[in-house]
Amino acid sequence: MEYIELAVKIEDQFQEILIAELGELAFDSFEQREGEVKAYVPTEAFVEQDVKEIIERYNILFSATYEVVYHEDKNWNEEWEKNFSPVYISDQCVIRAHFHQLEKEYPYEIIITPKMSFGTGHHETTSLMVQSQFDVDLEGKNVMDVGCGTGVLAIMAKKLQAANVFACDIDEWAFENAKENFQLNGFEDVKIEQGIIQEVDVPLVNYDVVFANINKNVLLNDIKTYANYVIKEGYLLLSGFYQEDVNDIMDEANKYGFIQKEIKTKNNWVALVLQKA
Question: How far apart are CA 165 and CA 202, in angstroms?
């Protein structure tokens, strides 16, 4: 089978968002480098016009370019694994693959199988959300992770002694990868469903903490749904948007009784810790 290699010159902070978008176009393997993403798709599934439309949207913010190269069949997931590096978060947590050798121990260690799901920890929003979990007492709590990706946030919640954790994601690849990662970290009891939050079978009515690391438009639409699950004085942790979007997010969250407790930023990305009054 012949494959297309799409090499996109793009700023690092937008790489995982780009990967998520290309995943919708049947690209199934990715490599991340400084200033560049390489994506792979079977030749018969490649539609260049779809790629152009994505790149044109990024060009509104900065200059993004791409190049197309044709290849014979290759194990692209194996190639991607070679470029997967550990993620270190505030000297408290490391996110790594099973083949990484570490020079020192960390209080918390998350092991994931490095596949192409969003949420490996390299993106600012994932690391910000992990940091934000340290601001909330999760011990013995019921936790929901909406749009869980690889399951990093759900795994971190279990490591912080959450009693019950439920996760969901609309993407089949993420759903399967998250299940694998839960098992890899010894948390087979994490319940996971594939689908959007409004349609999945949520096992509990009340949650102490809900995570949602998605994008601005989805969050604005779904905050009212999250509010139905968060108990009084419970927490809602949000990320996936920029600093200039905070007011819009807070205006919507305020409608459902949430107040801002903490805010973290990194390269213009934001994570909010909100509490339900």
Answer: 11
Contact 97, 84 (CB under 8 A): yes
In the chain, the N- to C-terminal Cα span, in Å, equals 57
| pLDDT, greater one: 1 or 46 | 46
Gyration radius of the chain over CA positions: 19
Phi, psi of 168 (to 5 degrees): -150, 155
Q: How far is residue 222 from each of residues 146, 174, 229, 249, measured CA to CA in Å?
A: 10, 20, 12, 11
Question: Tens digits of per-residue pLDDT, 87-108?
Answer: 899 889 999 888 788 878 899 9
Q: Between 74 and 4, where is the model more confident?
A: 4
* CATH (residue range 3-81): 3.30.70.2170
pLDDT, one tens digit per residue, over 198-238 is: 999 999 999 999 999 998 989 999 999 999 999 999 999 99
Handedness of CA 129, 131, 135, 137 (dihedral sign): positive
Give domain limits for the chain. Answer: 3-81, 119-276
Q: Residue 87's beta-bridge partner residues?
A: 95
- Lowest mean pLDDT of 32-36, 83-87, 147-151, 169-173, name the range: 83-87
DSSP string computed for 73-94: ---HHHHHHHT---EEETTTEE
SS3 track for 232-258: EEEEEEEEEEEHHHHHHHHHHHHCCCE
- Cβ neighbours of 164 (radius 10 Å): 18
CATH for 119-276, among 3.40.50.150, 3.40.50.10490, 3.10.580.10, 3.10.350.10?
3.40.50.150
Residue 140, CA atoms < 13 Å, CB-side half-sphere: 0
- Give pTM, 2 decimals: 0.75
